[in-house]
Each structure stands twice: as structure tokens, then as C-alpha cells.
Amino acid sequence: MKLHVVGIDLGKTVFHLVGLDSTGQVVLRKKCSRTQLLAFTANLQVQLIGMESCSGSHFLGRALREQGHEVRLMPAQYVKPYVQTNKSDFLDAEAIAEAVQRPRMRFVPIKTEEQLDLQALHGSAQIGAGTAQRTH
Questions:
Q1: How many Cβ atoms sit within 10 Å of the Cβ of residue 14?
Q2: Where does the pLDDT of residue 133 fall: very low under 50, low under 70, confident under 90, or very high at 90 and above?
Q3: Which of 20, 51, 94, 106 shows the greatest Cβ crowding within 10 Å of its Cβ?
Q4: How much is the pTM?
Q5: Which helix (H) or strand (E) covers residue 78, if one does?
């Protein structure tokens, strides 16, 4: 299957995919687990995959890049204006697919495991420093 763009809404255990063709029409709606997603995308021909950025999206972004896909992450607040109607996971995925195509969209670089580890350590050090100041 050849798609122009795929938007992926990430959940804890289930992911929702929406694929758009070159005219912007929805041609794919799929719900799957992480392993099903990676198996499905392994043979998928798509120009661009978009996701909202979170810690899980960095892992998935690296895995999709290893499969040869172009992957872009966006902050959730930049995707929100593209949600058309009431919230649902498929509508969120469709909004992600729409937003990732915008030429002026701001993207988040995909972080390595080491960068995420360092970020977590830095965050916990700040939290620890804040509580130490309050207790003394």
C-alpha cells in the first residue's frame, strides 16, 4: 500500500493510524499494538510519518527510521488546532497527519536513548534540589 502521509496517535498499549493519500483523503484507519504497528509499517510505502512528541514517540520514531521511513515529531499543542470535531483517537491521528504536512510546523528532533536518560537525570536532580531547599 502506498500512502502520502500517516499520522499515529500513541496510547499506552494501542496505537491508532490514519493514512492520507496525495489528495488528503483518508484511505487507511487502523488500530494496533506496538508489535503489530512495527510489523505493519515494515512493508508500508509512505513518504512521511507524524506523531505527537512524548517519551514513547522517541523510541517509536527511532524504530520507524530504522525501517527507512521519514518520521517527524510535533508538540501536542501544535497539533490541537487541526482536530476537526469531538476528540477520538482516530480524529487525533488524522489531525497529526494533517499537521505534519504543514511547511511552517515546528518539529521536535528524535532523541537517542542516551539523551532521554540524561534528560531524566537532569529532571530528577532539579526535583531533588527543589525539595532540599524547602526542607532546610
A1: 14
A2: low
A3: 51
A4: 0.81
A5: helix 76-79
